[in-house]
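Chapter summary example.
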Amino acid sequence: MKLLFLACLSPKTGNCTTAKRISYTLDFRTHIESAGHTCELRDAADFKSSAEVASLIEQKPPFEGAIAIHLFKAGRLLLDIQVPFGVVFGGTDINEDVKVEQKRAVMEQVLLKARFAVAFTDKLKEEAEVYMMSQSNKIYIQPQGIKTEVATSFSWWEFLKSSGLPGEGVEDTHVFLLVCGLRRVKDPLYLLEAFSEWHTENPLAVLIIIGPKIDPLFTEEVEAITKRSAGVYLAQERSQEELHAAMRKSFAVVNSSVSEGMSAAILEAMDLEVPVVARDIPGNTALVQHEVTGLLYSSPQEFVSMSKRLLLDKELRDRVVKNGKRYVREHHSLDHERKAYQKLMDTLH
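The structure predicted for these 349 residues follows.
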């Protein structure tokens, strides 16, 4: 079966190799092809209308089905196609776009026409049911499968130095690594003022922000503010394997997003046995149980308080690391995800 796979790729990721940053996209493609399907991955940004996608679908040999990630940005482009399709909620579609009436109307059409829809969490499914007219029985819950790979040649000292930290004494630094694409929904500036104040009290505590520069204007703002924020640094984007190596060497991985579908960085940190300190929002609370698999905070001041606890309480640190690793192993298996998507592909025949 020939499938069109339409996803919202970062402006810097124009092909399947660089699409590794969107981990669930690549994982899904692998799962689909392992079931005997062929899949063509295309960026939703390359198409101006659903008519263009419909024309692509009809090219010889024609596509026999399609999948879209993100109900609005990608899903709306499938409304004119004449082959069956499924959709995967992206997170911001259900958490943010659904609040805009015009977008919600389009997403309802997509959901009604789709053979199936996938939500990463129970909460995302519930939100879709609250905000949109939907057939609940076609929305399946399937968490992301997680796999981490650490670069063997990674130099922690070089990473810290290239991020702007002074060369001396970096071995004793407690690095809180904020992993996110530079765009407003990830809110990387949320913690900066409070963290800088803490850094003046404890110079060993530093915050490093790392991720692709998705929004150019916002990136300029982040660069300007981090330069004048004590103890806060902006690292150059790294390969997925180098990022995982940096995560594993960090004291904790931080999430500060306004909304999340399912944060791959949180799950990767758990898999790498690194403590997670995450903002208390629905997408994160679906993964992080406070003081069990990680720590949750509701304000910058609470983040600092939780981080201080993590530094001082080894028992707490060991507990969240152990439980986080177990949680990922039990609930985010690649094998379980693969089987689930293979079953869903059968509904497109």
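To summarize the output: Confidence is low (pLDDT under 50) at residues 11-26.
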